[in-house]
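Minutes, project huddle
Topic: does the predicted pose make sense with flavin-adenine dinucleotide bound?
PN asked that the exact inputs be recorded in the minutes so nobody has to dig through chat later. Recorded below.
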Amino acid sequence: MKISSILSGGGPFVSLEVFPPRKDAPFGPVKEAVAQMAELKPAFISVTYGASGNAQANTAEIASFVQACGTPALAHLTCLTSSREHIADEIADLRARGIENILCLRGDSPADASAASGPAPSFAHAVDLVRALRPSPFCLGGACYPECHPECAHIEEDIAHLKEKVDAGLDFLTTQMFFDNNVYFRYLARLRAAGITVPVLAGIMPVVNGRQITRICRLSGTHLPPRFQSIVDHFGDDPESMLDAGVAYATEQIVDLFANGVPAVHVYTMNKPEVASRIMGNLHGIVAR
Ligand code: FAD
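Predicted holo structure (tokens), as shared on screen:
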């Protein structure tokens, strides 16, 4: 089922996320995580795409398994390091497997400098991938950054690029994680003022590893509000306490988003069915299934 059709059903909806096994790693543990998450009846499950090439081949297979579990799948696809032929092969594979939803992403530049000095990429930005795929009937999503993409100097410029990407044919957007809902609400107002009218799924990360999140947020420019920072400072060294606190904080964020009219939240569950289960359990009477 297309995500655009799901979203037209009103909500509130919650979607979950998994990453595929690395090349040559067993599929079993990831499929077990998918099966457990599918039982929670999320709106869809997204499957990330390894930018390094390491896990790329496995995205389509896991997305296919998501659908075999009775849940719509969203397959991520990055383009910066891919040729047009490779993208065409990936699309043909997704189509053959009955996947209807693709998250169109640029991906990050390879750390290897020699790769960066090679020929110009076929797809320099995600908008180029959207343009290549739009004639197709896939439901297409894209990423957006409430606190500005780290490579862009100004949020106005980032939103102008986003508008171009949406106008190329996106059906919905999913945000980078944020820990202060006001950041999302202010950003949404700016997108609407810029004429971006597609649904904007709010990306929520339940933090279960305090030390890791501090580093990730520093790299991605994500603001850690003092209330959240004190949770990390206090519970970050105790995994059990951090899990409780992280799930509670994420649940509170999601309830506040729904209470303020946001129709869909995407939870970055990262192959952790226990986290997904606790969050979905907390939202049992709230979420549409
Ligand atoms: P773009 O939309 O191309 O934007 C990248 C930068 O280029 C921005 O600074 C933008 O302002 C600028 N830009 C855009 N268009 C133009 C233009 N025409 N001219 C000049 N500048 C321009 N990474 C993975 O490897 N695998 C995944 O599965 C994955 N999933 C993700 C899911 C979500 C919801 C999010 C938020 C991110 C995900 N990422 C993933 C990370 C993503 O690939 C990186 O953040 C990457 O740096 C940017 O990708 P993008 O698609 O947003 O790029």
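Observations noted during the meeting:
- The two ends are 14 Å apart (CA to CA).
- Strands lie at 13-18, 45-47, 73-78, 101-105, 139-144, 172-175, 200-204, 264-267.
No decisions taken; revisit at the next huddle.
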